[in-house]
């Protein structure tokens, strides 16, 4: 800075040096008159800088030249000079001649020049400086802006002092207060993770040793929130002239987001790779340009059969991968247009040319700057197959639904509305599908019992199904039907539905009831059978006991029913049983039970009789007699006029037993007693009968032992021809001598033999024994072949034995007896059972020479019709007629008729039971000369009989 003292004047005395300095100085200089402000002198620099020439400027004021930009500046300058006599670097803005602005520092002082006070002013142009300063400011701002917009923080570390400067952002990134940081290095990096700080130190150590000065480092700043911020620092190391580290300055950038993004990107890439490799669905990547596969996954290989290396580098066309190439081209165009394809169904060919149907999804992707197609396949071959199967099964279901004999309905589960009903439903309920679809079971009132419906719903909720629930449904006409209901839950088109099947079990129930009925009823008469009778009896016993009443059990057995059945046929027998049933049912009260035990056995259970035992017995007997009379009334059947009589046994309840079994047994015993008493009678059970019954049992076991012990023997009763009092034959009669009880009555034991079947064995013995003794008589010459016959009684059961004929012939053969000597006595009972078979048997024996006599003739059902056909030789007039004939004209008439009949048929006649000469006389009178009876001889043991024979010690008839 040049300073002019007021004592040194530029134009004074040629002081050339001063003038030269004034005129050649680099700064513009002017001298002005203080009071007028006129320029007195300017220098070259002024002219150059402000554009005014000397001539233009000298004599004029600065105001006239318009030098001041702010005229106030001039006054301030003058005021300052007035006050201090000088100005020093007064900053102003001045204008040049052409109007350009110039920043300037003005220096000046007052001087006296030729008596005049002048101002010497030096104007230093600082325009460039100012511009440079501005430019620096601007660039600093721009840097800040740039740092800011790059979100960079900066720091500057002075290494020898350890002090560090950090920008606001740098401070903030380190979670320091939001202002410039100026403090120790360690404080600035306090938030850095311990491990990172160690790495940072190691990196710095490497940097100080090595030639490199640039440094880049990423570290983690631990934030107070617990989060981690990733910071990247780029810095440069500055060294002093000795190469020692002096400063290090750098930037800081928050790269947290980038790190995290990269991490997730890494993860997603990994994910993609593992998805690609591990996907169960085939995936491939192919290049758009040439269609070549560049990547396939393992599923692709296993599905389509190619190895990855067979596929990669080849195009689908080369592989014949697409079944339809045209489709491939169309889809390719679509993909190019839309950039993606969604679930298109396509057929592909595998390596071994199997067709696989897949749904394909494709999209375009970039791989290594090549446009590619990423395709994912889903093999739906099996799904399509199962869809087809499903469709088939649905069709089957449809058929089953519509053709089922059961009623089937499908209802919406929640609303209960019918969606579909079948023909079976129409049959069962009477409703047509169009009448019920959309309705509910409640609205058409199909269930008879609302409670049953609620039970069904409850079961459905509980178990999810209903199986075989018996319910009652209502037909549209109101009839109630029992149905067997099953319900399943099904889904139809995404809708929860119920499939209900109902089977009409009314018929089944009826059949069941019928079976039940049959189990308890007799098929022929529809009467309760034994089981039901026992059941009712049991109930009645308890009931009567409770009410202190009496009842009765009536056991009825039809007399000689078996004969009728056998002779007239089963249909007649059945008709009789039905008629008996009707008669019985008609004559008892509603509350009484008529039961059939089987065969011709009926039981009537009478209940609720009030009164004493005596009174009850009287009433019941009365009723029984009434029944007996009623049953005995003739029946007209099939042209036959038949009379059936019953034998009735009665047991009183509870007097005669406390259990059904006891009561039935006792009524049965009473019934047997009635039979014994000559049939067609009523017997009330009495304790003594029990004895008789057990007696019978005892007898039977006695008879069994008798066979083993050979306690049987035969007695012989001679048969006489009254005209010469000559023995013409004998009847063999069975005798049993009990070891302790002596001789037993044939009348009782023979019946037991027959009932028990023992007669077969015993009867056979009789025949053999008879043949043997007769042969002996013949051999001994006591009888002659043509003049004697031995009669043997044959029981029906014996005659029915299959080998009866053979046994008889064998007995004859064994004994060596001519068959003509044997005469078999049969009863009408034998004859009328299976007439044809009877005749056949008789004929075979007759052929061998055996004779037949019809025993007890007149007591049975014998009719002329049978008699004519039967190969019998003689009739035996029953002793009951013979006995009374002399006194009873009726019996005499019968005897007469029998004899007449015998004669007309050419049959021999023999009367039995002839005890008196009157009886014999009557017989002879009628032309019957043959007889047997006490009159001549009782049945006698063999030896006695032999004695009666002519060649023995002859006993002559009177
Ligand atoms: P039946 O065939 O009518 O036999 C004649 C019965 O009359 C015999 O009774 C005989 O003793 C009896 N009698 C004979 N003359 C007179 C008489 O003048 N007055 C009376 N009151 N009775 C006379 P018996 O021996 O007690 O036999 C009874 C029945 O037993 C027989 O009746 C016969 O049906 C049966 N019977 C006897 N022996 C046999 C046999 O070996 N086999 C079979 N199946 N039945 C036999
Ligand atoms: Ca006989
Ligand atoms: Ca007889």
TrEMBL record:
- Source domain of life is Bacteria
Q: Which residues form the GGDEF domain?
A: 549-687
Q: Which CDD domains match?
A: EAL, GGDEF, PAS
* Entry protein name: EAL domain-containing protein
Question: What range(s) does the PAC domain occupy?
Answer: 213-267
Extract the signal peptide range: none
Task: Return the NCBIfam families for the record.
Answer: GGDEF, sensory_box
Pfam families per UniProt: EAL, GGDEF, PAS, PAS_3, PAS_9
PAS domain sequence ranges: 14-63, 268-339, 393-462
Instruction: Give the matching SMART domains.
Output: EAL, GGDEF, PAC, PAS
Alphabetized PANTHER family for the sequence: BIOFILM ARCHITECTURE MAINTENANCE PROTEIN MBAA, DIGUANYLATE CYCLASE DGCP
Start and end residues of each EAL domain: 696-953
């Amino acid at each position: 800075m040049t300073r002019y003292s007021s004592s040194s004047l530029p134009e004074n005395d040629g002081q050339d040096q001063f003038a030269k300095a004034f005129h050649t100085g680099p700064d513009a200089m002017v001298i002005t008159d203080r009071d007028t402000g006129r320029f007195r002198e300017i220098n070259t620099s002024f002219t150059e800088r402000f554009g005014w020439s000397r001539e233009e400027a000298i004599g004029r004021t600065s105001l006239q030249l318009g030098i001041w930009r702010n005229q106030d500046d001039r006054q301030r300058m003058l005021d300052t000079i007035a006050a201090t006599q000088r100005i020093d670097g007064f900053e102003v803005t001045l204008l040049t001649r052409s109007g350009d602005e110039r920043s300037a520092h003005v220096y000046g002082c007052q001087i006296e020049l030729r008596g005049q006070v002048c101002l010497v002013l030096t104007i230093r142009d600082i325009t460039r400086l100012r511009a440079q300063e501005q430019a620096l400011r601007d660039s600093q701002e721009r840097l800040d802006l740039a740092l800011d917009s790059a979100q960079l923080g900066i720091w500057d570390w002075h290494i020898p002092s350890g002090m560090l400067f950090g920008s606001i952002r740098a401070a903030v990134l380190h979670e320091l207060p939001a202002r410039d940081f100026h403090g120790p290095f360690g404080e600035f990096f306090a938030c850095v993770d311990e491990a990172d700080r160690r790495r940072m130190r190691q990196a710095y150590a490497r940097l100080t040793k090595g030639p490199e000065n640039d440094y880049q480092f990423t570290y983690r700043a631990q934030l107070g929130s617990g989060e981690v911020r990733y910071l990247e620092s780029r810095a440069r190391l500055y060294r002093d002239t000795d190469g020692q580290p002096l400063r290090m300055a750098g930037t800081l950038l928050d790269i947290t987001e980038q790190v995290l993004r990269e991490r997730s990107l890494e993860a997603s890439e990994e994910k993609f790779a593992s998805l690609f490799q591990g996907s169960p669905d085939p995936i491939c990547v192919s290049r758009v340009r040439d269609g070549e596969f560049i990547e396939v996954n393992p599923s692709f290989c296993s599905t389509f059969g190619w190895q990855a290396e067979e596929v990669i580098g080849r195009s689908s066309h080369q592989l014949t991968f697409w079944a339809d190439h045209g489709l491939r081209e169309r889809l390719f165009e679509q993909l190019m247009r839309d950039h993606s394809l969604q679930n298109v169904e396509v057929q592909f060919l595998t390596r071994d040319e199997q067709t696989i149907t897949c749904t394909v999804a494709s999209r375009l992707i970039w791989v290594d700057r090549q446009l590619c197609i990423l395709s994912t396949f889903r093999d739906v071959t099996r799904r399509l197959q199962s869809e087809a199967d499903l469709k088939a099964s649905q069709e089957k279901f449809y058929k089953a639904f519509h053709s089922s004999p059961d009623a089937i309905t499908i209802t919406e589960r929640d609303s209960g509305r019918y969606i579909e009903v079948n023909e079976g439903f129409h049959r069962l309920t009477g409703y047509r599908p169009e009448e019920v679809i959309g309705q509910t079971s409640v609205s058409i009132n199909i269930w008879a019992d609302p409670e049953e419906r609620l039970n069904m719903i409850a079961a459905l909720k509980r178990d999810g199904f209903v199986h075989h629930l018996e319910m009652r449904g209502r037909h549209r006409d109101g009839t109630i039907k029992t149905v067997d209901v099953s319900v399943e839950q099904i889904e139809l088109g995404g809708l929860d539905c119920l499939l209900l099947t109902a089977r009409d079990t009314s018929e089944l129930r009826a059949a069941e009831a019928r079976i039940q009925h049959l189990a308890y009823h007799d098929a022929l008469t529809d009467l309760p059978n034994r089981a039901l009778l026992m059941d009712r009896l049991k109930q009645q016993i308890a009931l009567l006991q409770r009410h202190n009443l009496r009842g009765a059990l009536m056991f009825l057995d039809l007399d000689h029913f078996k004969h009728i059945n056998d002779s007239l046929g089963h249909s007649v027998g059945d008709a009789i049983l039905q008629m008996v049933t009707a008669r019985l049912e008609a004559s008892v009260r509603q509350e009484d039970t008529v039961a059939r035990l089987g065969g011709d056995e009926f039981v009537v259970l009478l209940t609720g009789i009030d009164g004493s035992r005596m009174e009850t017995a009287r009433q019941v007997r009365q009723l029984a007699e009434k029944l007996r009379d009623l049953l005995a009334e003739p029946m007209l059947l099939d042209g036959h006029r038949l009379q059936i009589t019953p034998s009735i046994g009665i047991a009183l309840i509870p007097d005669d037993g406390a259990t059904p079994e006891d009561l039935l047994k006792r009524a049965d015993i009473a019934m047997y007693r009635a039979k014994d008493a000559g049939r067609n009678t009523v017997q009330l059970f009495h304790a003594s009968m029990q004895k008789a019954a057990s007696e019978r049992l005892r007898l039977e076991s006695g008879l069994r032992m008798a066979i083993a012990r050979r306690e049987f023997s035969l007695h012989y009763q001679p048969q006489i021809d009254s005209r010469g009092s000559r023995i013409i034959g004998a009847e063999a009669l069975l005798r049993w001598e009990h070891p302790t009880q002596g001789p037993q009555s044939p009348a009782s034991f023979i019946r037991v033999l027959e009932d028990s079947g023992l007669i077969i064995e015993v009867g056979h013995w009789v025949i053999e024994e008879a043949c043997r003794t007769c042969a002996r008589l013949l051999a001994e010459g006591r009888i002659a072949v043509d003049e004697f016959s031995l009669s043997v009684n044959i029981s029906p059961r014996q005659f029915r034995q299959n080998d009866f004929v053979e046994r008889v012939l064998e007995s004859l053969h064994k004994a060596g007896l001519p068959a003509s000597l044997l005469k078999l006595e049969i009863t009408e009972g034998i004859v009328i059972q299976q007439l044809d078979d009877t005749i056949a048997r008789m004929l075979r024996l007759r052929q061998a020479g055996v004779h037949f006599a019809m025993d007890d003739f007149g007591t049975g059902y014998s009719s002329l019709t049978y008699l004519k056909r039967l190969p019998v030789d003689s009739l035996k007039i029953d002793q009951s007629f013979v006995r009374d004939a002399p006194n009873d004209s009726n019996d005499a008439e019968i005897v007469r008729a029998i004899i007449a009949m015998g004669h007309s048929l050419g049959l021999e006649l023999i009367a039995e039971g002839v005890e008196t000469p009157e009886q014999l006389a009557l017989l002879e009178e009628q032309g019957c000369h043959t007889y047997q009876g006490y009159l001549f001889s009782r049945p006698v043991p063999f030896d006695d009989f032999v004695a009666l024979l002519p060649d023995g010690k002859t006993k002559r008839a009177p």
